[in-house]
Amino acid sequence: MANEFHTLLDATIQHLEGLKARGARHVAVTPATLQALRKPLAKTQAPAAGPAPAAPVKAPGRVQAGTPAARTLPSSSLPLSSKTPLQGAEKEKAMRALAARVTGCTKCPRLPESRTQTVFGVGTVHARLMFVGEAPGADEDAQGEPFVGRAGQLLTKIIETMGLQRGEVYIGNILKCRPDTPGQSSGNRKPTPVEMATCLGYLEEQIGIIQPQVMVALGATAVQGLLGQQVAGRTMGSLRGDWLEWRGIPLMVTYHPAYLLRNQSLTEKRKVWEDMLKVMAKLELPISAKQRGFFLKK
Ligand code: SF4
Fold first, then answer.
1. How do the residues of the chain divide into helix, strand and coil, expressed in percent and rounded to 5?
2. Who's near 113: CB < 8 A, 6+ residues apart?
3. Environment class of 250 (CB within 10 Å of its CB; exposed 0-12, middle 13-18, buried 19+)
């Protein structure tokens, strides 16, 4: 029975990998099928003897720190809509418990010693819209809140221009610790793929608690952290402006606000604004004629 199961599992994985190689990002599965799939998996979780199960993958295409590609069906890559959402106070309680775990995290080498504090996330657990950045910088490390430096102030302005308040959305990063910068007296560095893979589970839990209707990835590093191999080799120019998907949640990729601080051209500002107009439309937020016309050359 176990052999038959593993044969079927291998065939299923082969089929899914073929779909993935042809560009498919998800497969439609009914709740009844999902339920049926869980049963044989549960039965084979702890076999009395036989080959050890392969290590689970937490996200399709994700960089795994020093592990070969895993071969089990990744339950955590199922659409979030297949999981029972938390309600009201349950969400706040779960987020507080998660924040407490992150505060004491020492999974990465060096970062626990170099950080001032972890930078968990900010906003409401009831947000319909979630922004995801790459990692805290010096300002965020000092204040314990993501996106509080100049780039963060610009993000707040963008949110307000959309007709929302910063407190109505949720803002988090792939990494919860500032990447260390040994030998540098100032400046920040990008997180490494291994650091992102190590920390990503916390963000996945945050997203699972919030279950936002729409997510926005700010910059290339953030989308690489979220989608891994699915976006390998793609440029920001080819990624931004179109809807992608993260476990069933529509994902818009746009430039990091820091890019707009470096490049003040109306054209680039308009690109980001067009991405935000798409986000507003997806969330069915009202869009005024004035909002539609921002950053258009007269
Ligand atoms: S970056 Fe994330 S995983 Fe690494 S030590 Fe900080 S909280 Fe832990």
1. 50, 10, 45
2. none
3. middle
The secondary structure of residue 56, as a DSSP letter, is P
Give pLDDT tens digits along the chain (298 positions). 445 555 455 556 555 555 554 555 566 665 565 555 555 444 434 333 333 333 332 333 333 333 333 323 333 466 666 667 899 899 999 999 999 999 999 999 999 999 999 999 999 999 999 999 999 999 999 999 999 999 999 999 999 999 999 999 999 999 999 999 988 878 889 999 999 999 999 999 999 999 999 999 999 999 999 999 899 999 999 999 999 999 999 999 999 999 999 999 999 999 999 999 999 999 999 999 999 999 997 7
Give the phi and the psi of residue 232 in degrees, each rounded to 5. -60, 135
| φ, ψ of residue 34 in degrees (nearest 5) | -60, -45
The CB of 112 under 6 Å from ligand 1? The reply is: yes
Structural domains in the chain plus CATH codes: 2-79 (no CATH), 88-293 (3.40.470.10)
Residue of 102, 140, 190, 203 to mutate, ligand 1, most atoms within 8 A of C-beta? 102
- 199 CB within 6 A, ligand 1: yes
What is the pTM for the complete model shown?
0.75
